[in-house]
Amino acid sequence: MKTIGIIGGGQLGRMLAMAAARLNFRTVVLEPQPDCPAAQVANDQIVAAYDDPRGLDELARLADLITYEFENVPVSAAEQLARSRPVFPPPKALEVAQDRLVEKRFINGCGIATAGFHPVDSQADLEAALAEFGGAGVLKTRRLGYDGKGQRVFRSAADDPAGAYVALGQVPLILESFVPFDREISVIAARAPDGTTACFDPAENVHRNGILHTSTVPPSVGGSTTEAARKAATTILDALGYVGVIGVEFFVLADGGVVANEIAPRVHNSGHWTEAACVVSQFEQHIRAIAGLPLGDPSRHSDCVMQNLVGDDIARVPDLLAERNVLLHLYGKAEARSGRKMGHFTRLL
Ligand code: AMP
């Protein structure tokens, strides 16, 4: 039986390990936190930092191939592993996804629209960039931002940028033009080693407090928007020589046009609905792709809404269990801290 190494021990790793087990793979998780959500269902855990060379050597010894469940895996760690084991998705995808400036340039290089952007490395850069965008824009850290953290929105020239560079930590930043979007959608797509691709239907995503709240499928967008989003996702997969599942987030404009926001080189929260509404979930699709098995059919058999259970939402579990057509998925986290994703459910419509 082959063993898949997973870097990262959160809920995405947990769901990957469960999908791997169904296809007769063993899993070993590299994660510093003992008894993490993924390790609870994996065969083995290496308790070590993601960049600990000894932990990485141990992972390469125990696993036949390696994947990861979050995009901030140190590129050097992925490259160390890639010297002795296949690592999918390719480390290049990490390089692109870890830095918003590199990511935007890469996406534009694929002929896909993004928000306008300027690198910001000082308060003076910020003020010059804001002036170019008429005073509106979204200032983000280039690295390590997630769930809306490390961001500041400027809605108009009336928003005073004084002190913003210092407030975001004097780290490399990017100012994006403000995209007046109608809605947000994402595409979860997969690419196999032979270049075959498969896209799940786009989901329409609603965020609350910077965290994904719901994903609804199908989205209320036209066919040409869906097609443009799928085509963009496939172009990105091909350009990266990608293997595995990717999440690509888009803004949808009033005229139906799509603007790419970001890529996640991994299974994605906005694809959790696939476990309830498709025969092959995004998690199984990822395992199939990285293991060189045929990709599954991405078509959905039901319309649905996925909702995250964040913090105290966990108290809804008894009621949700009493509902018909609801698939509940909990992550094995002991403590329901505010803002922490505890689980999700998908309601078939
Ligand atoms: P991100 O961390 O890039 O996914 O951004 C978090 C959320 O902020 C997005 O889902 C949007 O709702 C909003 N947002 C981010 N960038 C922009 C932008 N350039 N224009 C308008 N809204 C944005």
Verbal overview:
The structure is a single chain. The protein has 349 residues and is α+β, with helices and mostly antiparallel strands. It has three domains: 3-87, Rossmann fold (3-Layer(aba) Sandwich); 116-176, ATP-grasp fold, A domain (Dna Ligase, domain 1), CATH 3.30.1490.20; 181-348, ATP-grasp fold, B domain (D-amino Acid Aminotransferase, Chain A, domain 1, 2-Layer Sandwich). It is 28% helix and 27% strand. It has eleven helices and 17 strands. It has helices at 11-22, 53-62, 75-82, 91-97, 100-109, 123-132, 164-167, 223-239, 274-277, 282-290, 317-321, and strands at residues 3-7, 26-30, 44-46, 65-68, 117-120, 137-141, 151-154, 173-176, 183-191, 197-199, 203-208, 211-217, 244-252, 258-264, 304-310, 326-330, 341-348. Strands 9, 10, 11, 12, 13, 14, 15, 16 and 17 form a nine-stranded antiparallel beta sheet that branches. A four-stranded parallel beta sheet has the order 3-2-1-4, with helices on both faces. A four-stranded antiparallel beta sheet has the order 5-8-6-7, with helices on both faces. A hairpin with a 5-residue loop joins strand 13 and strand 14. It is globular, with a radius of gyration of 20 Å. It starts with a strand and ends with a strand. The model has no long low-confidence stretch (mean pLDDT 96). Residues 115, 138, 145, 148, 176, 178-179, 184, 207, 261-262 line the site of adenosine monophosphate.
